[in-house]
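Worked example (supplementary).
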Amino acid sequence: MNKRALFVKTTIFVLFFLVLLRLVDLMLIKHAKLSRIARVQQTKEQEVLVRRGIIYDRKGRELAVNLERPSLYCDPKLIEEPGEFAQKVGGILKLDKRRLVKLLKGERRFAWIARKVSPEVASRIQSLRIEGMGMLPDTKRFYPKGKLAAHLLGFVDIDNKGLEGVERTYEDFLIADGGRVYITRDAKGNILYRGGNFESSGNSIVLTIDEGLQAIVEEEIDRAVRQWQASAATVIMMDPFTGEILALANRPTFDPNRPGRYRASSRRNRAITDLYEPGSTFKLVTATAALEEGVATLNTRFDCSDGYIEVGGKRIRDSHKHGILTLKEIIEKSSNVGAVKVALKLGPGRLYKYVKLYGFGEKTGIDLIGESPGIVKDPSQWSATTIGAMAIGYEVMVTPLQVLRAYAVVANGGYEIRPHVVSKVISPEGLLLKKNRGARGRRIISERTVRQLKVALRAVVSEDGTAPKAAIPGNTVAGKTGTTRLVDKRTGRYSYRDFVSSFVGMVPVENPLFVMIVVIWRPERMYYGGEVAAPVFRAIAEKALAYRFIPREDRLKDIFLYVSSDENIMLKRMAVAEK
Amino acid sequence: MIIRRSFILKVLSLLLPLVLVFSVVYLRSSITALEYQLGQLQLEKLRLINKKSELIARRAKATSLKKIELVATRKMGLRYIDRQKVFYVKEVAPPAPYTAGLDNNK
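After joint prediction of all chains, the assembly is encoded as:
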């Protein structure tokens, strides 16, 4: 072997040996340190994008969905020219430039620039390629129907946490576990998939409300508030057999997409939080107690000819003198004197028993947050006037939903029910996680009393009753009006100016499709429940019956066309009775 | 013959580790390529889910019954039905052909 060959071989050997040494150094000695650095360089930790579950109406129409709206942040330390940054970014985001500059001061290493911006704005910002500024994927709750069913749906905060309504009550179902996912990237930043989900969704919720009925209710409540220049109003429609809330609306209202722009009083769900004295709608309790306890029948007569009665030194009056009235007529004409006489015959114990039996003074158990139980005094706390006042719906504070539930008991044949707004909870995979069955509770009042009450309540909407304006041509309606004075906060006495007008009823009377309550606070010009609230009931009920294809009851024989495909298409008008 | 076999063994002993190393490198790079593709697909899936959410929201907004009603009543002049003039149509099944048998011929 010549010298040159030996030199080359030795050099190659030495070089390979050096490479080997370096490999040993990198792979064995410095392994832990280098792999840690590599992990930092190649792996990116990313928050899992969490979407709240979708909220649907009973027919699967979306009422609350999610939109992809990224959030912008920055590391103030890495922003070299705060003025220039504020000029560029503030211009696109339409933010105050001085506020942006102020945001960049201090020792913080993280600051939100803007939360949940539109994709267009995000891409414009991204194209600026500003060092120290980044974008995080985020979702924004969006209510596509705007103000529709706002009080029922509720709203979320900037971090998508439920604050009111179903969003709050069903928070645990709607949110999903987030956490972090580790993404491996190459030198160019391309993502290498190593398992794990980048996003997760919460469970979806199906409500009991029907968007169609809700839209009808919202339109008519708006019309009523405009017409009577009322300070507030509430309408609730419920299936009396299952307790499913079909529609619920309050005025004033708000847009859940921008809840911060409205006053807290507009965001309040008055249907379950606001207490009022129910007035004559409460005579249902007095009548039920009298019929159930055998104190009176519908035909028992009471002398109301004086037009007033004194109870505990206070005079309770009728709107005008009625003469001698039967129990049915007391309900029909809404006689205060008659109702007080019935209550005096019953005595405090028996009246109180039925007040509690109907569930007044207790929460209805609706699956919404903030429900008030109302105020019902124990008989031991009653004054001398209480029995007279309570018989006509004073000295007792209730929510509109409690009154509606009491009438639902009559509508469904005498059974207790629990109102609810959520019918189903469904997992993202489509599995049924929870179902709210409208289980019928125990019987509260007898079938016989229910029949009698329905007769009396039907009379209310007759020409001789207090609410002929609630009558629907072609269908049977039963209900009761209520007109209550509000307490004047300045004087502490009942006002002669401020009233609450209400009507609560059911339609059709036999096998009702729904029970509904209309409560209008402080109407102007007119205040009788039969004049203010009853027409709203009728307007909503007429449209609702048409919407649900409920036929008229008056000429059932004539309104069905029977179509047969026998030979030629043949129309036969046949009587239902013959079927 | 013995010489020839030992030569083959020598060549194989050199080639096999080489093939093995290259196979491992090839497999590793294939897996990385696959991971890259999966990463891209995952991003595409995320993009499509976002797009779907956006479209669901737009559809829900566009099909708002309140909006439809406004368009129907104000722009198209439609009205709610007069319930007094509505007839409901029920289909009557045509009579079944006569069949001889023990079953009732309904």
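Two points are worth noting when inspecting this output. The helical segments of chain B are 2-62, 65-75. DSSP finds two helices and one strand in chain B.
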